[in-house]
Amino acid sequence: METKLVTIPCLDELSPAQEQALQEAGEVLRRGGLVAFPTETVYGLGGDALNPDSSRKIYAAKGRPCDNPLIVHICCMEDLSRVAKVSDEALRIAAHFWPGPLTMILPRQQEVPAETTGGLDTVAVRMPAHPVAQKLIRYAGGYVAAPSANISGKPSPTLAKYVMEDMDGRIEMVIDGGEVGIGLESTIVDLTVNPPQILRPGYITQRMLEEVLEHVEADVTMLRADTGQAPKAPGMKYRHYAPKAQMTIVTGLPKEVVAYINKQAAEDSSQGHKVGVMATQENVSAYRVQVIKSMGSRWDEEAIAHTLYRILREFDDEQVTRIYAESFAAQGFGQAIMNRLLKAAGHHVVEVSMHPQE
Ligand code: TXA
Ligand code: MG
User: Fold this and answer.
1) pTM for this one?
2) Does ligand 1 lie within 6 Å of residue 341's CB atom?
3) Mean of per-residue pLDDT scores for the chain
4) Longest CA pairwise span in the chain (Å)
Protein backbone atom coordinates (compact mmCIF):
# COMPACT_ATOMS: atom_id res chain seq x y z
CA MET A 1 0.00 0.00 0.00
CA GLU A 2 1.24 3.49 -0.77
CA THR A 3 1.09 5.85 2.19
CA LYS A 4 0.06 9.40 1.28
CA LEU A 5 1.85 12.12 3.28
CA VAL A 6 0.05 15.47 3.59
CA THR A 7 1.26 18.51 5.51
CA ILE A 8 -1.24 20.48 7.56
CA PRO A 9 0.46 22.94 9.88
CA CYS A 10 -1.39 23.75 13.08
CA LEU A 11 -2.81 27.06 11.82
CA ASP A 12 -6.05 28.62 12.97
CA GLU A 13 -7.21 29.11 9.39
CA LEU A 14 -6.70 26.22 6.98
CA SER A 15 -6.36 26.87 3.25
CA PRO A 16 -9.09 25.32 1.04
CA ALA A 17 -6.56 22.67 -0.10
CA GLN A 18 -5.72 21.75 3.52
CA GLU A 19 -9.38 21.62 4.46
CA GLN A 20 -9.97 19.31 1.49
CA ALA A 21 -7.05 17.08 2.50
CA LEU A 22 -8.53 16.72 5.99
CA GLN A 23 -11.94 15.93 4.55
CA GLU A 24 -10.33 13.27 2.37
CA ALA A 25 -8.57 11.82 5.45
CA GLY A 26 -11.95 11.71 7.21
CA GLU A 27 -13.38 9.76 4.30
CA VAL A 28 -10.49 7.28 4.43
CA LEU A 29 -11.40 6.66 8.08
CA ARG A 30 -15.14 6.33 7.31
CA ARG A 31 -14.30 3.71 4.69
CA GLY A 32 -12.35 1.67 7.29
CA GLY A 33 -8.83 2.86 6.39
CA LEU A 34 -6.10 4.13 8.74
CA VAL A 35 -4.75 7.69 9.03
CA ALA A 36 -1.98 8.87 11.38
CA PHE A 37 -2.45 12.40 12.73
CA PRO A 38 -0.94 14.87 15.21
CA THR A 39 -2.38 15.40 18.68
CA GLU A 40 -1.04 17.64 21.47
CA THR A 41 0.59 14.60 23.16
CA VAL A 42 2.04 12.29 20.46
CA TYR A 43 1.03 11.23 16.93
CA GLY A 44 -1.95 8.86 16.85
CA LEU A 45 -2.74 6.01 14.46
CA GLY A 46 -6.44 6.52 13.71
CA GLY A 47 -9.18 4.15 12.63
CA ASP A 48 -13.00 4.25 12.99
CA ALA A 49 -13.53 3.27 16.65
CA LEU A 50 -16.99 1.82 15.92
CA ASN A 51 -15.76 -0.45 13.11
CA PRO A 52 -14.24 -3.73 14.35
CA ASP A 53 -12.31 -4.19 11.08
CA SER A 54 -10.59 -0.83 11.53
CA SER A 55 -9.48 -1.79 15.04
CA ARG A 56 -8.14 -5.12 13.73
CA LYS A 57 -6.18 -3.22 11.12
CA ILE A 58 -4.69 -0.94 13.79
CA TYR A 59 -3.41 -3.94 15.76
CA ALA A 60 -1.93 -5.44 12.60
CA ALA A 61 -0.24 -2.18 11.49
CA LYS A 62 1.35 -1.68 14.93
CA GLY A 63 2.13 -5.33 15.60
CA ARG A 64 0.26 -4.76 18.87
CA PRO A 65 -1.03 -7.57 21.13
CA CYS A 66 -4.85 -7.58 20.83
CA ASP A 67 -5.41 -7.62 24.62
CA ASN A 68 -4.17 -4.01 24.70
CA PRO A 69 -7.23 -1.76 24.23
CA LEU A 70 -7.41 1.44 22.18
CA ILE A 71 -8.40 4.98 23.22
CA VAL A 72 -11.55 6.36 21.54
CA HIS A 73 -11.02 9.99 20.53
CA ILE A 74 -14.02 12.32 20.31
CA CYS A 75 -14.36 15.99 19.37
CA CYS A 76 -17.42 17.16 21.33
CA MET A 77 -19.12 16.42 24.64
CA GLU A 78 -22.44 15.39 23.08
CA ASP A 79 -20.68 12.40 21.54
CA LEU A 80 -19.43 10.92 24.84
CA SER A 81 -22.60 9.11 25.94
CA ARG A 82 -22.77 7.00 22.76
CA VAL A 83 -19.53 5.19 23.71
CA ALA A 84 -19.44 5.45 27.53
CA LYS A 85 -21.76 5.51 30.54
CA VAL A 86 -21.30 8.98 31.89
CA SER A 87 -21.18 9.83 35.62
CA ASP A 88 -21.16 13.20 37.41
CA GLU A 89 -17.47 12.69 38.13
CA ALA A 90 -16.75 12.12 34.45
CA LEU A 91 -18.63 15.30 33.52
CA ARG A 92 -16.68 17.33 36.06
CA ILE A 93 -13.34 15.95 34.86
CA ALA A 94 -14.29 16.56 31.22
CA ALA A 95 -15.41 20.13 31.94
CA HIS A 96 -12.03 20.82 33.55
CA PHE A 97 -9.54 19.02 31.34
CA TRP A 98 -11.13 18.51 27.90
CA PRO A 99 -10.13 19.14 25.28
CA GLY A 100 -6.70 18.12 26.54
CA PRO A 101 -4.17 15.43 27.43
CA LEU A 102 -6.45 13.35 29.66
CA THR A 103 -8.03 9.95 29.01
CA MET A 104 -10.89 8.63 31.16
CA ILE A 105 -11.72 4.95 31.65
CA LEU A 106 -15.52 4.59 31.87
CA PRO A 107 -18.04 1.74 31.61
CA ARG A 108 -18.55 1.11 27.89
CA GLN A 109 -21.68 1.22 25.79
CA GLN A 110 -22.56 -1.84 23.68
CA GLU A 111 -21.92 0.09 20.50
CA VAL A 112 -18.14 0.04 21.01
CA PRO A 113 -16.86 -3.20 19.49
CA ALA A 114 -14.88 -5.62 21.64
CA GLU A 115 -12.05 -5.25 19.12
CA THR A 116 -11.63 -1.62 20.21
CA THR A 117 -11.74 -2.26 23.97
CA GLY A 118 -9.63 -5.42 23.92
CA GLY A 119 -12.71 -7.33 25.14
CA LEU A 120 -13.05 -5.22 28.34
CA ASP A 121 -16.34 -3.86 29.75
CA THR A 122 -14.73 -0.45 30.03
CA VAL A 123 -13.67 2.06 27.39
CA ALA A 124 -10.91 4.69 27.29
CA VAL A 125 -12.06 8.09 25.93
CA ARG A 126 -10.19 11.30 25.23
CA MET A 127 -10.97 14.62 23.55
CA PRO A 128 -7.70 15.95 22.12
CA ALA A 129 -6.96 19.69 22.00
CA HIS A 130 -5.07 19.71 18.69
CA PRO A 131 -7.16 21.55 16.04
CA VAL A 132 -6.10 19.16 13.23
CA ALA A 133 -7.10 16.15 15.36
CA GLN A 134 -10.45 17.75 16.23
CA LYS A 135 -11.32 18.49 12.61
CA LEU A 136 -10.25 15.04 11.47
CA ILE A 137 -12.44 13.37 14.12
CA ARG A 138 -15.41 15.46 13.01
CA TYR A 139 -14.86 14.57 9.32
CA ALA A 140 -14.47 10.89 10.30
CA GLY A 141 -17.90 10.77 11.92
CA GLY A 142 -16.98 11.48 15.55
CA TYR A 143 -15.19 8.41 16.92
CA VAL A 144 -11.54 7.69 16.15
CA ALA A 145 -9.61 4.91 17.90
CA ALA A 146 -5.99 6.03 18.09
CA PRO A 147 -3.06 4.42 19.81
CA SER A 148 0.32 6.09 19.46
CA ALA A 149 1.46 5.79 15.83
CA ASN A 150 4.58 3.69 16.49
CA ILE A 151 5.35 0.05 15.90
CA SER A 152 4.51 -1.70 19.19
CA GLY A 153 7.41 -1.41 21.64
CA LYS A 154 9.10 1.60 20.03
CA PRO A 155 9.02 5.16 21.43
CA SER A 156 5.83 7.09 20.54
CA PRO A 157 6.37 9.42 17.57
CA THR A 158 6.60 13.15 18.22
CA LEU A 159 7.34 14.00 14.57
CA ALA A 160 5.69 12.81 11.32
CA LYS A 161 9.03 11.54 10.02
CA TYR A 162 9.05 8.93 12.82
CA VAL A 163 5.46 7.94 11.94
CA MET A 164 6.61 7.43 8.34
CA GLU A 165 9.60 5.40 9.53
CA ASP A 166 7.24 2.98 11.32
CA MET A 167 4.06 3.12 9.21
CA ASP A 168 5.10 3.80 5.59
CA GLY A 169 3.41 1.18 3.40
CA ARG A 170 1.14 -0.03 6.24
CA ILE A 171 -1.53 2.71 6.34
CA GLU A 172 -3.39 4.94 3.86
CA MET A 173 -2.32 8.38 5.05
CA VAL A 174 -0.08 10.36 7.41
CA ILE A 175 -0.89 13.97 8.30
CA ASP A 176 2.23 15.97 9.15
CA GLY A 177 1.30 18.69 11.62
CA GLY A 178 4.86 19.42 12.76
CA GLU A 179 6.36 18.55 16.13
CA VAL A 180 3.82 17.76 18.88
CA GLY A 181 3.53 20.01 21.95
CA ILE A 182 3.73 17.82 25.03
CA GLY A 183 5.71 14.82 23.79
CA LEU A 184 4.39 12.18 26.26
CA GLU A 185 1.06 10.34 26.08
CA SER A 186 -2.07 11.49 27.94
CA THR A 187 -2.69 10.85 31.62
CA ILE A 188 -5.10 7.91 32.03
CA VAL A 189 -7.52 8.04 34.97
CA ASP A 190 -9.83 5.11 35.74
CA LEU A 191 -13.22 6.36 36.96
CA THR A 192 -14.73 2.87 37.23
CA VAL A 193 -13.04 2.32 40.61
CA ASN A 194 -13.43 4.14 43.90
CA PRO A 195 -11.33 6.18 44.54
CA PRO A 196 -10.42 6.96 40.93
CA GLN A 197 -6.99 5.70 39.98
CA ILE A 198 -4.29 7.04 37.66
CA LEU A 199 -3.11 4.20 35.42
CA ARG A 200 -0.62 6.17 33.36
CA PRO A 201 0.96 9.47 34.51
CA GLY A 202 1.05 12.41 32.10
CA TYR A 203 0.84 16.18 31.85
CA ILE A 204 -2.34 16.25 33.98
CA THR A 205 -1.01 15.35 37.42
CA GLN A 206 -2.56 13.71 40.48
CA ARG A 207 -2.66 17.09 42.21
CA MET A 208 -4.50 18.69 39.29
CA LEU A 209 -7.08 15.87 39.31
CA GLU A 210 -7.49 16.23 43.07
CA GLU A 211 -8.55 19.83 42.58
CA VAL A 212 -11.65 18.43 40.86
CA LEU A 213 -12.15 15.04 42.54
CA GLU A 214 -11.50 14.77 46.23
CA HIS A 215 -9.13 11.86 46.27
CA VAL A 216 -7.29 10.16 43.45
CA GLU A 217 -4.86 7.26 43.78
CA ALA A 218 -2.00 6.20 41.52
CA ASP A 219 -1.36 2.65 40.30
CA VAL A 220 1.61 1.50 42.41
CA THR A 221 3.22 -0.14 39.38
CA MET A 222 3.73 3.22 37.63
CA LEU A 223 7.19 3.71 39.10
CA ARG A 224 8.03 0.28 40.54
CA ALA A 225 8.67 -3.10 38.99
CA ASP A 226 8.91 -4.95 42.31
CA THR A 227 5.29 -4.86 43.51
CA GLY A 228 4.36 -8.33 42.26
CA GLN A 229 1.27 -6.73 40.68
CA ALA A 230 0.37 -6.30 37.02
CA PRO A 231 -0.30 -2.73 35.85
CA LYS A 232 -4.03 -1.96 35.56
CA ALA A 233 -3.71 -0.53 32.03
CA PRO A 234 -2.93 -3.57 29.90
CA GLY A 235 -0.53 -1.55 27.72
CA MET A 236 1.66 -0.57 30.67
CA LYS A 237 2.90 -4.10 31.23
CA TYR A 238 4.93 -4.23 28.02
CA ARG A 239 8.52 -3.04 27.77
CA HIS A 240 7.41 0.02 25.95
CA TYR A 241 8.89 3.23 24.67
CA ALA A 242 12.09 1.29 24.24
CA PRO A 243 15.14 2.19 22.18
CA LYS A 244 17.21 -0.60 20.62
CA ALA A 245 20.16 -0.03 22.97
CA GLN A 246 20.45 -1.34 26.52
CA MET A 247 19.59 1.59 28.76
CA THR A 248 20.56 2.42 32.36
CA ILE A 249 19.18 5.20 34.57
CA VAL A 250 21.74 6.57 37.03
CA THR A 251 20.58 8.31 40.20
CA GLY A 252 22.61 10.17 42.81
CA LEU A 253 24.51 13.41 43.39
CA PRO A 254 25.17 15.11 40.03
CA LYS A 255 28.98 14.90 40.27
CA GLU A 256 28.89 11.22 41.15
CA VAL A 257 26.38 10.47 38.41
CA VAL A 258 28.65 12.14 35.83
CA ALA A 259 31.75 10.34 37.16
CA TYR A 260 30.00 6.94 37.12
CA ILE A 261 28.68 7.41 33.58
CA ASN A 262 32.07 8.60 32.26
CA LYS A 263 33.76 5.55 33.81
CA GLN A 264 31.18 3.06 32.49
CA ALA A 265 31.21 4.73 29.07
CA ALA A 266 34.99 4.35 28.82
CA GLU A 267 34.67 0.66 29.67
CA ASP A 268 31.76 0.11 27.25
CA SER A 269 33.65 1.91 24.45
CA SER A 270 36.70 -0.27 24.98
CA GLN A 271 34.42 -3.26 24.40
CA GLY A 272 33.27 -1.80 21.09
CA HIS A 273 30.00 -0.15 22.23
CA LYS A 274 28.75 3.17 20.98
CA VAL A 275 27.63 5.04 24.10
CA GLY A 276 24.98 7.75 24.34
CA VAL A 277 24.04 9.91 27.32
CA MET A 278 20.73 11.65 28.02
CA ALA A 279 21.98 14.60 30.04
CA THR A 280 20.45 17.64 31.62
CA GLN A 281 21.72 20.94 30.20
CA GLU A 282 23.47 21.68 33.51
CA ASN A 283 25.77 18.63 33.13
CA VAL A 284 26.21 18.37 29.37
CA SER A 285 29.77 19.72 29.24
CA ALA A 286 31.00 17.31 31.95
CA TYR A 287 30.49 14.10 29.92
CA ARG A 288 33.26 12.41 27.94
CA VAL A 289 31.25 10.05 25.75
CA GLN A 290 30.62 9.62 22.01
CA VAL A 291 27.01 10.88 21.79
CA ILE A 292 25.67 13.40 24.29
CA LYS A 293 22.11 14.70 24.02
CA SER A 294 20.74 17.48 26.17
CA MET A 295 17.18 16.96 27.36
CA GLY A 296 16.97 20.58 28.56
CA SER A 297 17.34 22.12 32.00
CA ARG A 298 16.63 19.87 35.00
CA TRP A 299 14.20 22.55 36.18
CA ASP A 300 12.21 22.64 32.95
CA GLU A 301 10.13 19.44 33.01
CA GLU A 302 8.12 20.44 29.97
CA ALA A 303 11.29 20.69 27.87
CA ILE A 304 12.51 17.32 29.16
CA ALA A 305 9.20 15.59 28.36
CA HIS A 306 9.14 17.27 24.95
CA THR A 307 12.58 15.92 23.91
CA LEU A 308 12.56 12.48 25.60
CA TYR A 309 11.13 10.28 22.83
CA ARG A 310 12.91 12.19 20.07
CA ILE A 311 16.28 11.55 21.76
CA LEU A 312 15.51 7.83 22.17
CA ARG A 313 14.71 7.65 18.43
CA GLU A 314 17.89 9.60 17.56
CA PHE A 315 19.98 7.11 19.52
CA ASP A 316 18.44 4.33 17.41
CA ASP A 317 19.22 6.28 14.20
CA GLU A 318 22.83 6.79 15.32
CA GLN A 319 23.17 3.09 16.22
CA VAL A 320 24.01 3.75 19.85
CA THR A 321 24.27 0.42 21.72
CA ARG A 322 24.48 1.63 25.35
CA ILE A 323 22.45 4.51 26.81
CA TYR A 324 22.87 6.18 30.20
CA ALA A 325 20.22 8.63 31.43
CA GLU A 326 20.17 10.98 34.40
CA SER A 327 17.13 10.63 36.65
CA PHE A 328 14.49 13.10 37.81
CA ALA A 329 12.31 13.81 40.82
CA ALA A 330 9.22 11.61 40.37
CA GLN A 331 6.72 14.24 41.46
CA GLY A 332 4.11 16.17 39.49
CA PHE A 333 4.85 15.99 35.77
CA GLY A 334 8.20 14.39 36.74
CA GLN A 335 6.23 11.20 37.47
CA ALA A 336 5.41 10.86 33.78
CA ILE A 337 9.03 11.51 32.80
CA MET A 338 10.37 8.87 35.22
CA ASN A 339 7.63 6.38 34.26
CA ARG A 340 8.64 6.57 30.57
CA LEU A 341 12.39 6.51 31.32
CA LEU A 342 11.98 3.48 33.61
CA LYS A 343 9.99 1.64 30.96
CA ALA A 344 12.52 2.50 28.25
CA ALA A 345 15.26 1.15 30.53
CA GLY A 346 13.29 -1.95 31.54
CA HIS A 347 13.60 -0.60 35.15
CA HIS A 348 17.38 -0.90 35.04
CA VAL A 349 18.51 1.69 37.62
CA VAL A 350 21.92 2.21 39.28
CA GLU A 351 22.14 4.30 42.44
CA VAL A 352 25.61 5.80 42.84
CA SER A 353 25.37 7.78 46.06
CA MET A 354 23.72 7.51 49.43
CA HIS A 355 21.92 10.84 49.09
CA PRO A 356 20.27 11.10 45.71
CA GLN A 357 19.70 14.65 44.46
CA GLU A 358 15.93 14.32 44.73
O1 TXA B 1 -1.86 10.66 24.35
C2 TXA B 1 -2.43 9.60 24.07
O3 TXA B 1 -3.22 9.03 24.85
C4 TXA B 1 -2.12 8.98 22.68
C5 TXA B 1 -2.69 9.93 21.62
C6 TXA B 1 -2.57 9.39 20.23
O7 TXA B 1 -4.00 10.28 21.94
N8 TXA B 1 -2.64 7.66 22.57
C9 TXA B 1 -2.09 6.61 23.25
O10 TXA B 1 -2.68 5.39 22.99
O11 TXA B 1 -1.15 6.72 24.00
P12 TXA B 1 -1.99 3.99 23.32
O13 TXA B 1 -2.86 2.99 22.66
O14 TXA B 1 -0.57 4.02 22.91
O15 TXA B 1 -2.14 3.82 24.84
C16 TXA B 1 -3.41 3.50 25.40
C17 TXA B 1 -3.25 2.98 26.78
C18 TXA B 1 -2.72 1.56 26.82
O19 TXA B 1 -1.77 1.44 27.88
C20 TXA B 1 -3.97 0.75 27.11
O21 TXA B 1 -3.71 -0.45 27.77
C22 TXA B 1 -4.78 1.71 27.98
O23 TXA B 1 -4.55 2.96 27.38
N24 TXA B 1 -6.23 1.43 27.96
C25 TXA B 1 -7.08 1.57 26.90
N26 TXA B 1 -8.32 1.18 27.24
C27 TXA B 1 -8.27 0.79 28.54
C28 TXA B 1 -9.24 0.27 29.47
N29 TXA B 1 -10.50 0.09 29.12
N30 TXA B 1 -8.82 -0.03 30.72
C31 TXA B 1 -7.53 0.17 31.09
N32 TXA B 1 -6.57 0.65 30.25
C33 TXA B 1 -6.93 0.96 29.00
MG1 MG C 1 1.46 3.65 22.78
Assistant:
1) 0.96
2) no
3) 94
4) 61
